[in-house]
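We store sequence with structure; for instance:
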Amino acid sequence: MWRGLYTAGAGMITETKRTDTIANNLANANTSGYKRDDAINREFAPMLIRRINDGKMQNDVTSIKGFSLGGVAPVVGTLGLGSYIDEIATDHTQGGFQTTGNPLDLAISGDGYFAVQTPQGVRYTRDGNFYKSAAGQLQTVNGQAVLDNQGRPITIPAGATRISVDEKGQIQADNQTIATLQFVQFGPNRRALLKQGNSLYYPQAGAQPQAATGAIQQGMLENSNTNVVSEMVELINNYRIYEAGSKAVTTQDTMLDKSVNEVGKL
């Protein structure tokens, strides 16, 4: 019974973490460039169960007409020990585009990330909702400087009236090239970049940036790839699984109570 409590409790903890993941996806359904997460669970290694006290006496249930297991307890089967969250995996599928008409709004079609400067170092993002600061610097909505292909902040000349960005990130102000965005990707390994928060990613040790194969679309933003309806359905299903685990814990607790307070009296 103790094992049943732990198994059901482990399942409830797993579903709680899955609920947190779904809630975060829903909270970022309108965040530009956001990529939804999936909570991947894994089962604990099952336990092999054998019948005890079999095979010790030649007149027990395993000894019929002289047949005996030779002292080896027969296998009953396996017992599951619950599950746990093995990984929070990011779904990198392309989000839809929203036309804004703002020349500093940039969306990425295909693979690629913009590089920005943060207090923790260079980080990468697909959120191309950029602004021109009072000092003329190209920045994110959080005030982080957008970097060029030399790792330097990009400054837009004062008085520039026409700004254009091509598919590979070359920026022109009034037909004069002023910088080229650091537009990179990290190869086929999707886990080369991990989420940090605020639409930022950081590279794992050894991950090296390379030229992006995607294309930049000016005057657009990439929407979140979260499907609100699917997430809500998943949330309801998750709640039902959690509720089943809760009932299993209650049942195990009732059985334990009877074992201690009623069977023990006999």
About this structure: The radius of gyration is 29 Å. Residues 228-261 form the longest helix (34 residues). The chain has two helices and 20 strands.
